[in-house]
Amino acid sequence: MQYMALIYSDPSLEPAYGSPEFEAMMKDYFAFDKALRAAGAHVAGEELTGVETATSLKIRNGKVETMDGPFAETKERLGGFYIFDVPDLDAALRFAAMIPSAPYGTIEVRPVMKHNS
């Protein structure tokens, strides 16, 4: 079964870009990615650009409306994701707990909905 781990974090709590702590976190991400692939559980995973590059879209009364930035105001931002292919939620949670940003934010884990078509 596939699960998506959405990586939310508060930039003010993360190590500063370019700092030794940031470099250590990135090494941890590369090691996590390697372990996920070695376990055969990696489906996808990417970092997202900053919220300042986001465009939100909605359709109201048949018209498309767009706005700069994320729709919701929040301290935490969606910074990236992984998709795991694992037997169950417990396995997905074990991998999600290994994501290096977990100490700085929240990892939301959800099953991926599969539709028969």
From TrEMBL:
Domain of life: Bacteria
SUPFAM superfamilies, sorted: Dimeric alpha+beta barrel
YCII-related domain residues: 1-114
Family the entry assigns: Belongs to the YciI family.
Protein name, UniProt field: YciI family protein
Natural source organism: Mesorhizobium shangrilense
